[in-house]
């Protein structure tokens, strides 16, 4: 069998018989160090189907076959003795033709190939072959040659450019040198260094500066170019050119001076005309400025009068604002004596079931009894008794300094019946003198947002409040009535 390996994991190709359908059968017989000596030994050690040394030998159709040659669906039992005999046979390395001298038992061949220095492996850097059957594929070398390959010949190994000291892949070094800014290139004019042979070498990045400032062969315009000398001379010949053409340069410069004098005379006349025009314009502007100054003085006088008028308006507005405050206070006092002493709130509460389950505190919108600001409060499942508590607490309001404290009132809680309006659930009570003495913090003038609440802790049970006659679409309607009572 050929020793060609198709990929980096083709070890089985070397030790087993590979058939046309791609499956691996018995062990290769040609690897045996001592060939089979008799027909009897061949009969018991070779597969009758693939003719390879048996793998898990078993009886089939009056003969021995390896485990992979038995048809699918056929129950078989390996012959343990044959497995041991085959596993102990001595074979040589499948890569012996490449120089490997290893030999050992059949059972260790695959493990040996994992370490064999002659086994072909892919280049760790991933370089590809440029010719032959493997062209375009990752290069494969014997394991022992990988270090040398990575060090000396792999096109993807990193090299250091000797000019710019940057790291560059070996396959990219030549293109890099073509653009490296530090690579020495010959002067474009082929100038030389005095006393040396060959063209002067300059770093690629320094070529423009060399041509502009140093190169003796770089052509430059004659200094008298502006006067009409249209010669371009090499830098080293410029002094000689100026000496030889001194008289011509002199004529050109004098001619240029005369032309400039003529132009200067024309420009002088033009400037004088412009000066006269500018003088007339200045006089006109000064006259206009005087007129504007007078107008500005009048505007300032008007602005001063406006400021005085605005000050008077502000003072009048303050006086009016003070009168408005006095009028508002008078209205509030008057209002406190004219409002009815009763208050009423119709409070619709939604999501009753969830509020009972969560034992939430639920607060109504504030409402007024006279000028006293109040708010309702429901405590569901109060103190784990299964009852619903309803309370009222007095809130801080804008008229507290005009009201009488402590407050005393009669309160009524009515749970509306949605089915029979004449059969509502109702509770009525009033604040007594004993309540004022026992719970003064509930009825005194509020110093914070609101006083402590006062009411009934067991108004109705959770079960009763969820009955259909009170609870409709998971909501109830509670009517709160408060009537102010006379003071003791």
TrEMBL record:
Entry-linked PANTHER family: TNF RECEPTOR ASSOCIATED FACTOR (PTHR10131), TNF RECEPTOR-ASSOCIATED FACTOR 4 (PTHR10131:SF94)
Species in which this protein is naturally found: Oopsacas minuta
GO cellular component: cytoplasm
ZnF endpoints (TRAF-type): 112-164, 176-238
One MF term in the entry's GO annotations: zinc ion binding
Pfam families named among the record's database cross-references: MATH_2, zf-TRAF
Residue ranges that the Swiss-Prot or TrEMBL entry lists as coiled coil: 268-333
Domain MATH: 342-482
Subcellular location: Cytoplasm
Keyword Metal-binding: yes
Keyword Cell division: no
Species classification: Eukaryota, Metazoa, Porifera, Hexactinellida, Hexasterophora
Domain of life per record: Eukaryota
The TRAF-type domain, residue ranges: 112-164, 176-238
InterPro entries on file: MATH/TRAF_dom, TRAF-like, Znf_RING/FYVE/PHD, Znf_TRAF
Keywords: Coiled coil, Cytoplasm, Metal-binding, Receptor, Repeat, Zinc, Zinc-finger
A GO biological-process term: regulation of canonical NF-kappaB signal transduction
Protein name as catalogued: TNF receptor-associated factor 3
């Amino acid at each position: 069998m050929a020793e060609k390996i198709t990929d980096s994991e083709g070890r089985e190709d070397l030790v087993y018989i590979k058939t046309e359908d791609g499956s691996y059968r018995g062990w290769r017989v040609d690897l045996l160090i001592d060939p089979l000596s008799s027909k009897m030994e061949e009969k018991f050690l070779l597969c009758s189907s693939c003719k390879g040394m048996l793998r898990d030998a078993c009886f089939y159709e009056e003969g021995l076959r390896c485990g992979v040659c038995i048809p699918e669906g056929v129950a078989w039992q390996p012959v343990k003795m044959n497995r041991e005999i085959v596993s102990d046979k001595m074979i040589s390395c499948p890569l012996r033709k490449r120089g490997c001298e290893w030999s050992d038992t059949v059972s260790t061949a695959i493990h040996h190939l994992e370490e064999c220095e002659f086994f072909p492996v892919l280049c760790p850097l991933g370089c590809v072959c440029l010719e032959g059957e493997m062209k375009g594929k990752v290069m494969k070398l014997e394991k022992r040659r990988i270090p040398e390959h990575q060090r000396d010949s792999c096109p993807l190994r990193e090299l250091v450019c000797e000019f710019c000291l940057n790291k560059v892949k070996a396959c990219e070094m030549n293109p890099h040198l073509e653009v490296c800014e530090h690579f020495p290139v010959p002067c474009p004019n082929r100038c030389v260094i005095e006393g040396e042979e060959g063209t002067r070498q300059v770093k690629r990045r320094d070529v423009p500066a060399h041509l502009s400032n140093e190169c003796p062969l770089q052509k430059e315009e004659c200094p008298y170019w502006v006067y009409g000398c249209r010669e371009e001379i090499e830098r080293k010949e410029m002094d000689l050119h100026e000496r030889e053409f001194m008289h011509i340069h002199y004529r050109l410069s004098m001619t240029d001076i005369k032309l400039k004098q003529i132009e200067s005379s024309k420009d002088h006349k033009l400037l004088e005309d412009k000066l006269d025009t500018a003088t007339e314009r200045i006089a006109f502007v000064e006259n206009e400025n005087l007129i504007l100054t007078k107008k500005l003085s009048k505007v300032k006088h008007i602005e001063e009068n406006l400021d005085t008028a605005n000050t008077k308006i502000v003072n009048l507005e303050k006086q009016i604002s003070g009168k408005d405050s006095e009028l508002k206070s008078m209205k509030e006092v008057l209002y406190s004596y004219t409002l009815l002493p009763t208050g009423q709130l119709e409070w619709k509460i939604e999501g009753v079931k969830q509020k009972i389950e969560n034992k939430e505190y639920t607060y109504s919108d504030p409402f007024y009894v006279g000028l006293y600001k109040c708010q309702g409060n429901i405590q569901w499942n109060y103190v784990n008794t299964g009852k619903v508590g309803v309370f009222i607490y007095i809130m801080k309001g804008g008229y507290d300094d005009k009201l009488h404290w402590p407050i005393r009132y009669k309160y009524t809680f009515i749970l509306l019946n949605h089915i029979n309006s004449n059969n509502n659930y109702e509770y009525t009570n009033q604040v007594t003198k004993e309540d004022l003495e026992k719970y003064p913090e509930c009825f005194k003038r509020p110093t914070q947002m609101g006083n402590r609440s006062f009411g009934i802790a067991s108004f109705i049970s959770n079960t009763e409040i969820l009955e259909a006659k009170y609870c409709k679409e998971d909501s109830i309607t509670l009517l709160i009535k408060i009537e102010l009572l006379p003071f003791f």
